[in-house]
Backbone:
């Protein structure tokens, strides 16, 4: 999310008043040239506590920027337990292949399926 400089302190103060919410505000540094590759990716797996944090932390460790993220849960068609689904639009560094991202995310859990939109 982008916030103008004049509103950062007010937003930070308001968010810090919400119980149970942890925030981290980072001031973006504008790059002279964009060395990013846009890629769409969908992560599907059994819903569990902390799955968004696991995936986003791992993407951060790979140097991937999350441009857009949409999450949802659905009932599994035949079993009825919840299935987690996250649709990402990612900005990858030019020296990082999407196949590496896929392999690394699949190592997080046996039940995660990583689909790449070509």
Residues:
């Amino acid at each position: 999310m982008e916030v103008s400089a004049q509103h950062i302190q007010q937003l930070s103060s308001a968010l810090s008043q919400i119980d149970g919410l942890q925030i981290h505000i980072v001031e973006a540094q504008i790059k002279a040239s964009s060395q990013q590759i846009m890629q769409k990716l969908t992560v599907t797996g059994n819903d569990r506590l902390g799955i968004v944090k696991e995936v986003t932390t791992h993407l951060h460790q790979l140097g991937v920027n999350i441009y857009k993220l949409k999450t949802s849960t659905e009932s599994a068609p035949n079993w009825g337990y919840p299935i987690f689904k996250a649709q990402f639009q990612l900005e990858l560094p030019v020296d990082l292949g999407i196949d590496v991202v896929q392999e690394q995310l699949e190592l997080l859990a046996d039940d995660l399926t990583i689909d790449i939109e070509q």
